[in-house]
């Protein structure tokens, strides 16, 4: 795999969004949940038929990129560089781009909770790509544009059948009658690393849910690798129990 600073015009990710990425939180100089991030990159590359790469080398490159005690590292893998045309045939040298950024401050959200609305934009269903964090994020770009015009902190996003999937840049979980649930991501959405981590730490059931399920829920949260767990204080004008979120995930390291 080629490790580069910036793509050129022949890079498949630049041309077609042909690749995948993950965003890692660095805490106390350590890449948090790196094993899950690496597993997601490997399984995603396999699903996209991207040539295999050396995971030990990638891990070493990520470690070398850490330059602060707390920061963000983004790892983007492109299928590689090639001439024009969609066909991936013969492209056997993936390209990797590793960048760093300051860690956003989510402490206010974590302490005070957030308000959720519902996006008008709906996700397309594509089982072959569902769950992957591939480089084509146009749906999320349009959802973020919608969010900028709304007086809420995040938007619940549905698919074309009105099934609840996620929020614009995080996964969603909710508590109903004392049991925790999260939407299945077999038709749309991104299977986030924090979502995977929480599901190994607590009993959380996957299923197909509607907005009515969220309205009836006692508590909701959003989560991703950077923000950890953020409780929802209000959904569609309804107050939610943030303390249930804190109690259920007490002791889990984010």
Model description:
This protein has helices spanning 12-16, 34-47, 55-65, 107-112, 138-147, 193-201, 211-216, 242-248, and strands at 2-4, 19-27, 30-31, 71-78, 95-101, 114-123, 154-159, 164-167, 171-176, 179-183, 204-207, 219-224, 228-235, 238-239. The protein has 254 residues and is of the alpha/beta class. The strands form two sheets. Strands 6, 7, 8, 9, 10, 11, 12, 13 and 14 form a nine-stranded mixed beta sheet that branches. The chain is globular, with a radius of gyration of 19 Å.
Give a summary of the structure in a few sentences.
With 254 residues, the chain is of the alpha/beta class.
Number of helices: 8
Q: What overall geometry do the principal axes of the alpha carbons give?
A: globular
Instruction: Catalogue the unreliable spans.
Output: none
- DSSP strand content: 25-35%
Biggest sheet, in brief?
9 strands, mixed
Structural class: alpha/beta
**Proportion of residues in helical segments:** 25-40%
Core attributes:
254 residues, alpha/beta, 9-stranded mixed beta sheet, 5-stranded mixed beta sheet
Per-chain topology:
Blueprint: E1 2-4, H1 12-16, E2 19-27, E3 30-31, H2 34-47, H3 55-65, E4 71-78, E5 95-101, H4 107-112, E6 114-123, H5 138-147, E7 154-159, E8 164-167, E9 171-176, E10 179-183, H6 193-201, E11 204-207, H7 211-216, E12 219-224, E13 228-235, E14 238-239, H8 242-248
